[in-house]
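User: Let's play a game. I give you a shape written as tokens, and you guess the letters that built it. Ready? Here's round one.
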């Protein structure tokens, strides 16, 4: 998919979440979400902060390199610290998020063809960066929706998250201190419209099947594997479902299974 199309879908994902939070009361912005220690305001602050850092990586790689050195001083806590520091009154926070995501969208479309964007432990194409922002926006938006008791309708944008989840399979093993498996894994996922999304070689012995929504919930660590309708065939596929994460950084704690809260 062309980067223009991916950025357009990132904009759509952001607008969907914007529509949920725009009319919230100040009290609702302060409600605790399933992410321990994070309110709805923290969720939006995190998105606003990450958009700003992604914009920095595009427009000033040298300054981003300085930021990376600061991150090394607190690799386990910098995300929480950044969200806390970005907090503001709801109206100001919403305006900051809106402005930042619009500036990032423009910057992503302006990256010269073939140029990579530095990021945490890697570098990304503009399309990959936009895909990662869709994943983050959807995942944090889900935390907001869960807090408010809202069920969001799955869309075709989940394909980006499923793709990213599959692409980061090796990273998930590395993040957990395990060797990257040589055996490929095939995903066969039922899309929201009932069609089939596939990732990985057709002749792979290791396979994961199930709803695309469930795979996205797993790789963003928004639901426990025990609560999802995902089937694994093969040892590598089975192990991956225990440690999958589509986001950069150290392994997340995940969410408890239903009934363990």
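Assistant: Ready! My guess for every position:
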């Amino acid at each position: 998919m062309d980067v223009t199309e991916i950025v357009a879908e990132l904009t759509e994902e952001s607008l969907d979440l914007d529509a949920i939070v725009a009319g919230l009361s100040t009290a609702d912005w302060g409600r605790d979400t399933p992410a321990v220690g994070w309110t709805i305001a923290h969720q939006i602050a995190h998105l606003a902060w990450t958009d700003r850092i992604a914009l920095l990586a595009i427009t000033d790689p040298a300054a981003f390199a300085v930021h990376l050195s600061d991150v090394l001083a607190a690799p386990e806590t910098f995300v929480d610290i950044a969200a806390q520091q970005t907090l503001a009154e709801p109206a100001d926070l919403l305006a900051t998020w809106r402005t930042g995501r619009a500036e990032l969208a423009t910057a992503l479309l302006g990256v010269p063809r073939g140029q990579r964007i530095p990021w945490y432990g890697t570098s990304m194409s503009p399309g990959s960066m936009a895909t990662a922002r869709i994943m983050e926006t959807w995942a944090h938006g889900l935390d907001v929706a869960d807090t408010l008791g809202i069920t969001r309708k799955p869309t075709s944008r989940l394909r980006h998250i499923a793709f990213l989840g599959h692409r980061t399979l090796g990273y998930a093993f590395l993040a957990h201190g395990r060797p990257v498996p040589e055996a490929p894994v095939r995903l066969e996922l039922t899309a929201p419209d009932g069609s089939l999304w596939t990732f990985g070689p057709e002749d792979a012995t290791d396979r994961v099947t199930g709803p695309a929504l469930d795979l996205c919930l797993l790789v963003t660590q928004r639901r426990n594997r025990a609560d999802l309708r995902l089937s694994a065939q093969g040892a590598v596929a089975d192990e991956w479902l225990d440690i999958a994460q589509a986001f950069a950084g150290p392994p997340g704690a995940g969410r408890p299974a239903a009934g363990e809260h």
